[in-house]
Structure formats: C-alpha cells, structure tokens
Write a sequence for this structure.
C-alpha cells in the first residue's frame, strides 16, 4: 500500500517543482504521468467491468466455503469476520435507537 502512496508523493513533487521552477520538462513529465495513470485507471475499470459478474455470482458460495473451512482455524480470517459482524450489529443497534 505504501508503494502506491509513494507514487503519488513523487508525482505531486514533480508537478510542484515543475510549476515553481517553470520547468517545461518537469511539467511535461507530470502531464505524461497523469495521462499514464488515467489510462491505467481506464484499463482497470474495463477489466473490473467484465470480472464483476463473475465475482458477484460466485461471491456467496465462495464466502460460505471459506467460512466453513477457515473460520476458527485461521486467526486473521476469524478476526476479520468477527470485526465485520461486530460492526454490523453495532450499526444496526445504533440505527434502531435513533
């Protein structure tokens, strides 16, 4: 995750330096980075568009299988599921009181 943030920091630094120094090369580099990132987002969006139906149709059965096989055996998975359940119950109770 830190890898993704470092790209944004570097990109913003290049844009800021380019603007402050009025450097055409740095501003061109900044613009090209923006175009590459926008193109990458579009590609990822198209891929997820086609994968979405597969994910949604298999989600419930895959989650049931994983819950039956790993809950109670994998501590990280158990903590994740338990915290989701706790938050859901807490939010439901909070909404019914208001």
């Amino acid at each position: 995750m830190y890898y993704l943030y470092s790209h944004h920091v570097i990109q913003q630094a290049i844009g800021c330096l380019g603007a402050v120094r009025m450097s055409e090369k740095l501003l061109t580099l900044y613009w090209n980075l923006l175009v590459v990132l926008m193109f990458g987002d579009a590609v990822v969006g198209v891929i997820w568009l086609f994968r979405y139906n597969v994910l949604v149709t298999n989600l419930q059965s895959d989650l049931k299988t994983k819950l039956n096989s790993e809950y109670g055996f994998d501590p990280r998975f158990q903590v994740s599921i338990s915290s989701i359940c706790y938050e859901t119950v807490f939010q439901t109770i909070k909404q019914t009181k208001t």
The first helix runs from residue 2 to 21. Residues 2-97 form one domain. Helices lie at 2-21, 24-70, 75-97.
